[in-house]
């Protein structure tokens, strides 16, 4: 954690110290700046762009967000009483952010921390037999888009035109299937272990546990299965060969993450920078008002990270 003296000019202070801040993130994997005094979305946007230059537009989100401006988003809309388990943002895409930026404009009364966890440490702590299987097979994300749960087709792909969606899917190695009622289902296979493009460290890089059915609260899982069927869940994950992942494996992944989590409650004005490949992040349940703005930057192609399985986009 750093305690800067911004002197009422957060964008100016950040711009002047950008090189040192990036070096600290490269060294530690994440950095929290407290006392910066961020107070509004425009100031946050100036700070994010001063640090990262061009911000990435989000594609293939699993949940909707409020858009504050170009590349400036709210946290993903997720029930406040449920955790968002450890994950690496957009780890199922072919191009994902190398840097995540978070800024707190309203802190919850309790909970709501954005925890961080070292992906190389998690990889070392997991059973070798399990990680070797995922490294050999990869992992599969399945999605079923509906009007009730998760991001819409338009939010995920930037269009709801069927031809446009199909073109995006082909270009990004996503299998797709339109159901008789018009519902879209997709499937994409990705590497679970990658190498950091700058350091070469092997990283546990995925959203296997977070987007798996067994991470849901039991009553939520039961409701979704009753409503959409076991094959129609808004999202789910599988082993790379298509086998279902047992609940005990998901519990193990979440337990290992928890054993390697560091967390600090948000305070108004805080800024957090996270290396998205080296460091997973989460969101705890909370009470009260929570407004944390998000930016994504430093785009990285999966092919730059020595993926363990070949992905062919057509």
Please explain how this structure is put together.
The chain has helices spanning 10-16, 18-28, 41-52, 119-125, 128-137, 153-157, 162-171, 218-228, 247-259; strands spanning 30-33, 67-69, 72-74, 84-87, 95-106, 110-111, 116-118, 139-144, 175-178, 184-190, 193-195, 202-204, 235-239, 261-262, 271-275, 279-283, 286-287, 291-301. With 314 residues, the protein is an alpha+beta fold. It has a domain at 124-192 and 208-250. It has a six-stranded antiparallel sheet, covered by helices on one side. The protein has a four-stranded antiparallel sheet with strand order 4-16-7-14. A four-stranded antiparallel sheet has the order 9-10-8-13. A hairpin with a 5-residue loop joins strand 9 and strand 10. Helix 1 (10-16) runs parallel beside helix 3 (41-52). The model has no long low-confidence stretch (mean pLDDT 94). Keywords: Antibiotic biosynthesis, Iron, Oxidoreductase. Its cofactor is Fe(2+). InterPro entries: AlphaKG_dependent_hydroxylases, TauD-like_sf, TauD/TfdA-like.
